[in-house]
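WARN retry 2 of 3 for item q-0093 after timeout on previous attempt; input resubmitted unchanged.
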Amino acid sequence: MRRLLGRAFAAGAALRVAAYRRGLLSRRRLLGPVISVGNLGVGGSGKTPVVLRVAEILRDAGREVAVLSRGYRGSFRGEALVVSDGARVLAGPREAGDEPVMLARALPGVVVAVGPRRDAVGRAVEARFGPRVHVLDDGFQHLRLERDLDLVCLDVRDLEDRPMPAGRLRERPSALDRAHLVLLTRLEAASEDEVRALEARIGPERTLRVARRVVGWRSPDGAPAPPPARAFLLVAIARPERFERDVVEGGVVVAGRAFFRDHHRFRPEDLVRVAADARAAGATAIATTAKDAVRLDGAPGLGLPVVVLAIAAEVGDEARLRARLLAVARRAS
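OK item q-0093 returned
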């Protein structure tokens, strides 16, 4: 039954794409160019670090940049909410969602805004801040908004999966034909021969490899912090095992762990239990991710220091990616 439902889901997604291509559903264009960063599967494809790196490249090249997000699991239901004006973070995770707030903190000089329709969000940003390059977060399936460059983050095992609910895919693998560049992530899950075969299947000119790079330990406010001697892991992301591997490979002893579903809103009782378990395990600190740290703001004290292991996307041929990004960005000049 799940397989049949997956086929129906994939057929519906394909019909929607066809409706946009034939003009049966209308698309909107912003004044500035749009660079979409999306994925084929749900959760854990490394999309958010790629969004961050794309915005950094554009900003550091002197471009005015905005990140447009739907604000997943945030309570905001209006047309557009400015999370950051580039100088100040103006909204919290309950209202805007955790990832937009994390991006806003990590991207000084970049406007971050959320709303259910990214074309409306983009128009609101342009009306307030002027035309700029828009980075569309999780935009591959958001076909209502015209884009100038489609980047798709593809877990190296995605093409072995099935459409939802039988698997994790939002569309059939053939949807990759719409992508301008495919960024291969979770490289450690495949052999070198398998990655090369995947590149050959998609097209070497359209693929880039993206690795996870451990930046180092930070305090929740972003200041450098020493690595903990014994860490209790508090994580609510799609693939917590990757975070644990990063911690262990950095030489930190894992005293215990509390893993929650992706985007989980930590309740006071969750944190009381975590604090008790961490103390019982002899932990010297609570270790978490940048995304989770956003949701810990204002939470009751855990009784132990909280440290964040910062992760970045490292693009194998970043010069090629930068060239494509800046070629598109010239439309904003």
